[in-house]
Structure formats: C-alpha cells, structure tokens
Amino acid sequence: MSHFAPRAPSRPLLAALLALTAVLVPQAPARAEPGIRILNSLRADELAFNALTTNRESLAALSSQPLHTRTFASDPRLKHTLEHPAARNVMTYLAQCALPPHASVKWASRAGETFVFEGELGLCSEWEYNQPSPSCLRYVTACLLARNNAFGRRVMVSMRGEDPSEPLRFNPSGAPKEWSPMFLPCQTREAGLQAECGWLGESVGTCSAGEMVTVAAGAPEPTTCTGRMGSIQGDRVLRVCEDTKGCAWKDRLADTDGNACGGIAPSVQFECPRSGRYSVMSAPFNREARPGSWAAPVATPGRYPAAPFGAYTFREGAFYGNMFDPKGLTVEVLLNLDNFQPTLRNLRFKGVIHENVHACHGRDWVDGDSHLRSRICANPSISGDRIEEGCMAHAAGPCESGSFSAQPARCHVNDGPLVEGDGDFESCMDARGYMQTEPITVFLRTPCEALSPKSQTTCGMTCDFSKFPFKCSDSCTLQKSPGQCLTTKACLDNPASCPAQ
Question: How far lies 260's CA from each of 210, 226, 247, 257, 352, in Å?
Fold first, then answer.
C-alpha cells in the first residue's frame, strides 16, 4: 500500500463525530490486569499421546477417585502409567492445574525413583480428596489446553474465565473492573485516535531521556520526506505511551493517523520520557474494518523493538470440553508392562484425540482455523508409527463475530459479567452446536509468541536513518510485528492478496 494513498471522503467527518463521543463518554483508566499467569510449555505431542490421558482405563480411574498418592499406588490402572515419560510430563501440568498449592501427588517408579507432582492453581481442589465433578474436569481440560504449546517453547500466558461459585478463582483482587477494554473489539461503531477499543499492543522501545524520537509505519522520514520508515498494510493509527502496558488517549505521549509529508501512513515525533522506555499501540482507523491490516513500526533513535508489549492484551481464543471422558477417546496409548514402550491402538481415530474437546480463535487472526491447528496438533512418532496429524481438540472456528472464518461465532458472551473488561469468552458452542461450559480464554503479550520460531521473522528493508543519505539493505531476518504475526505468509509475500485490500 502506498503511504500517499488518499483517505475515504467520509473519514474526517466520522473521526470528528467519534472524537466528540469519546469526550462526552470518558473511559475509565486501566487498573490491575486479571487472570492467572502461568507458563504455556506443555508439548502438544505429549498432551495428545501419553499413557495417562490417552488411555481409556487410566481416564476411568482418574475421573472416579481422588487425585492422590494412594490412588496411583493402589489402582492397577494407574500404578505403572507414569512410567511413560510423556505421561509424567502431562501429570506435572495436570496437578498444577487441578490441585491447590499445598497439595501434591507422589509416585514411585519400578526402578525406585520418586516423583512429586505439586499443585498450583487449584482449579479442581475437590479432586484432592474426592471424585471430581464434571465442572472440575472441564476446568482442568481447558487449563491443559491453554498451556499446550506445539513448539515446546516456554511462553507465559494469562488465563481468564469466571466461576460464579468461586468469584476469586480467576480474579484474585476481587475488583469488578480490572482491565481497560481498549484492547478488546469495539462494541459500537468507532474510529480514529480517541476510540478506546480495538487496539493492538505492538512493542516496547528504549531511548535516551529528552531526545526526540520518531516512530513510523510506512511513512517517509519526516525531515526530508524521502525514503520509507517501517511498513504498513491497510489504514492504521498509532498511539505512543510511556507505560510499557499501553495507555488511554488522555495519557498518551503522542498519536497519529498520518504523516507531515502527506498521506495516511502514520508517523509521529515525541520527546523520550525520563524512564527511557515507551510502548507503541496500533489500531485500524475504522474499528469496523475486518482483520487483515497491520503495521510494522520502526523508531529512531534508540532501539525498537526492545521488548514485547508489557501486558497480556492479545486475546488468542478459548478452550473448552472434557478430555477425561473415556468414551470420547478415539485412539489409545498402551504401555508394554515388561519394557514400558508405548504403542497405539486406533479406536475410531480421524485426526482428533478427544471428541469432546474444542477450541475457538479470536477474531483478529486472518486464518484462525490454521492457527488453531498449529497450536493444538502434533505429528509425533509412537514406536515407529508416524501420526501425520493428531489434534488435541476440534477447531470449532471463531469465538466471536467479525472474523474471516465462514463458520459462525461460537461464544455467546465476549466478556463475562463478573469482571468488566477482562475479555473472557463464556457460553461457547462446539462444532456440533452443543453448549460447552467452563471455557478458559487465553491472552498473550503478542500473537507472535504463539507461532513457531521460524515463523516469527519476515523479509523487508532495514534502514539506518541516523545519517544522510540513509543506508538501507534487504534482510529476511526482520522480527515480525504483532500485526504481521496475525496474517498469513501469502499475504505478507503479496500485499495485494491481503484481505484488507
């Protein structure tokens, strides 16, 4: 897209009307960030194919009695299950999701080695002493899926949800409004710089206090109106904040919906704050625009990007269902009790391990269904048997309306009523149209964290604007911006094919 592209004739009038609305209805500032912070680092192949949760007998044993040391010592269906290394790893995450911090499960291998699986979140604390309820098992299922990582990377996520019987479960502070909705989709027709919704956290930059910094995405260098700083696809606006977690419009360092050289590609200058750090946010000018636009800002002087955005603001999607129902299992992992080598038994496997486990994606993914499959599917080898694609859950489509998916929105509630603005999906349907309760919504600092390391870079021009004439060179090791991570490789390779065009 050219940075001198003309604006739509209705844009100035629309911006004026919406700016007036923003003044008349001020937004409350963001406070604490809700949710449960925890590592997403459970390998997809281990969660999909292990002798603990991919075995009918062990599932029947787990779901009918306490998650306790005595259970694993006495029940023959579980006694040797954890000899499988993948099962031990899953048990580590299962105990963390289900049990409270004071609880643990101990298990001794046949070789005499003792393993201890500690509780952490307490999403199913009743399981410590009793048979777990279906509601309990659904929370643990969603937690395990939320912590599933196809690439084996250690990524911190924010898990959000609500349990009316335990309001503090996902909201430890108890505040009724814990996070500004500025990063959630707009619920009304809004646009421009002052709209407090639809923003995407870009990255954090560093600079020397007092110096003038230029941040631009596809605009010319401002002093010469030559060259091009950064890149952009579609019509987006920028907001610069001192707080690394972003800010409301009234607290901004600077913002822009165009550049001084003419055109709508954004560029803005500001004085580096005393902290020497700043964050950049971007949004479509028209918040009703369908996903597909993106900005890849650059900044000079200083370093940008220097760090990921400082808050968990990107809503990846939601996970829900019950993976502990033995009847829903479509393939089994069996252990040879002589050598503890795993083998596979095909029950009715057609690519999804558990029939009653589901995932939906946030609206901003340009190809959300493909993203879900990369997140929850694996291609493991079990005793020489290669599984081309084994998915932990059904990819149910979009959680919310406004995406490019042809499937209907799966969740009836985009922000549960217990905490305003935390963005938890509730009342979600599976692909068959049945209501599934106890979903967990996952928020990331940046959508790039959900991609494989190889997919986090792109090709483009990098320039040194500290001297004139500018020195530019092509590179295929450029770090993708969050917006670029949301789109497809075909779109990045050929912007004319992007949905935003």
Answer: 22, 12, 24, 10, 53
> What is the rounded distance in angstroms from the CA atom of residue 460 to the CA atom of residue 228?
12
User: In the structure encoding, which two tokens stand for residue 253, read together?
Assistant: 């360092």
Contact 33, 179 (CB under 8 A): yes
What's the angle, vertex CA 294, arms to CA 291 and CA 1, rounded to 5? 105
Q: Is there a contact between 253 and 273 (Cβ–Cβ < 8 Å)?
A: yes
Q: Does residue 314 sit in helix, strand or coil? A: strand
Give every CB contact of residue 32 below 8 A, 6+ residues apart in sequence: 173, 175, 178, 179
**Given the structure tokens 């967990």, which residue do they identify?**
440
d(C-alpha 501, C-alpha 489), whole Å: 15
Low-confidence ranges of the chain (pLDDT < 70): 1-32, 179, 380-388, 456-457, 461, 464-469, 495, 497-501
Partners of residue 255 on adjacent β-strands: 239
Both tokens assigned to 85: 């290394």
Tokens 């670029």 -> residue: 484
Residue 318 and residue 359 in contact, taking contact as beta carbons nearer than 8 Å: yes
3-class secondary-structure state, position 49: coil
Pair 73, 67: CB distance under 8 Å: no
| DSSP-assigned letter for residue 99 | S
Q: Shortest CA distance to 68 belongs to which of 78, 60, 59?
A: 78
User: Contact, 84 vs 49, CB < 8 A?
Assistant: no
Give the integer Cα–Cα distance in Å for 205 and 64.
Answer: 52
State the Cα–Cα distance between residues 70 and 7, nearest whole angstrom. 69
Tell how many helices (H) and how many strands (E) occur in the chain: 9, 33
H or E segment and range at residue 73: helix 69-74
Q: Is 471 helix (H, G, I), strand (E, B) or coil?
A: strand
Burial of 142 (0-12, 13-18, 19+ CB in 10 A): buried
> Are the C-beta atoms of residues 183 and 201 closer than 8 Å to each other?
yes
Strand-pairing partners, residue 104, are 118
Residue 7 neighbours by CB under 8 Å, 6+ apart? 235, 264
Count the Cβ atoms, other than its own, within 10 Å of residue 385: 12
What is the Cα–Cα distance from 392 to 86, expressed in whole angstroms? 15
For residue 336 the two structure tokens come to: 């040879």
Q: Are 448 and 461 in contact (CB under 8 A)?
A: no
Residues in the chain: 501
Task: Report the pLDDT value the prediction gives residue 147, as an integer from 0 to 100.
Answer: 94
